[in-house]
# Entry
Amino acid sequence: MYILLVNPWIYDFAAYDFWLKPLGILYVGAFLKNVGFEVRLIDLLNRHDPKLAEFAKLKPDKKFGTGKFVEREVEKPPFLKNIPRRYKCYGAPLEYFITQLKDAGKPDAVFVSSSLTYWWPGVAETIRVIKEIMPAVPVVLGGLYARLYPAHAVKNTKADYVFSGELSQINQVMNDLFKRNLNFDFENWFEILDPAYELYEKVGYLVFLTSLGCPYRCTYCVSPKLWRRFTQRKPHTVVNSVERYLDLFKVKDVVFFDDAILINTEDHFKPLLKLLIERDFGVNYHLPNGIHARLVDEELAFLLKEAGFKTIKLGYETSGYLQRTTGGKVYDEDLVRAARILRKAGFTKEEIQAYVMVNMPFQKAEDVLKAVEVCKNEGISVSVNEYTPIYGSEDWHMLVQRGVLDEETDPALLNNTVLPYWFRAGMSFETVQMLKTLARR
Ligand code: SF4
# Structure
């Protein structure tokens, strides 16, 4: 049996490769290989694929392997027509994709991944092209969008099968599609499997997860909903995995993309950091996914510094009363404490950055301004990002109940670029822009 994996295009008004790797489908690939399937991968977002050069003028890497995707303008879906921005397809050119599909032979199925729900038009277009080249091959859609909003995926993509489970439930797909009941320790897949980077010819950086899910319950987040339980991989297994792929690719940047890497830190991340220091791989490490400020302590900060971390993002989100009402994961004093500890350990302003959201429901402009001021006072950078109510999050349900959102609102309208043009619980477009400008000064 042979499965072709495809990581689809992004359709959006803006996108940037901030260490985007399709870990979900790489784990699916690892599982399929483990049970004896032949597996190949087409990743339309891999900027470092040498084959891309035949089809597009490549854009060089920016900092730490990040960079701009190849892009082309595409027509907006009817419900985005009034947004005065150019809508684009980010990722490899169409001709590249068609060539790769034609070279891929005759798979028994194509598994397509998905990510943010508002990127679904790129998923639909990717599947449309697959169907054109391989009309007789069943297409299975999985990933975040399929998990969060399967009914929408069934209706709006031409996938033959929408899989809304997590990897531990994938036997269901194998049963339904191939009448195969596979012998695998599904409950322990996260400990057993490495993300199958060997499916790539070349990558520019490596991304890993050391844990799945999060024990916190922030109202704007879906992480706890996606994972039935919070799971951590053993530190030495993670470090072996890092070593395995550094041997294969010789990249300079390794990224940990966990939602909650600091939980249980004495038995998890601190031992992991000590192993990284011991093995001394000579690479830069990055934590781009907003670590928990309250869980930062001095030992951790000095270990991060010694190991060679260059990017530390702190999840801050907002100042003001919303800190409490959205889940209480961080308060101003936690952020101040963490910033001071990290600065003391020797991290620079550029290396530490707090995420602040703007346009949260019922957020006041002064909450954003205060959050920005706290960061500036502590000598750390701040990244102000526009809020989006993720389909299925507590915020989303609350907004539907209050009549601010319609249950049928298309996820593409919840795109954080689009939201300020119409969101009635938020700030005006002008206020959002003003706050972003002030934060940059
Ligand atoms: S925002 Fe962060 S802390 Fe809150 S639930 Fe999501 S992952 Fe956990």
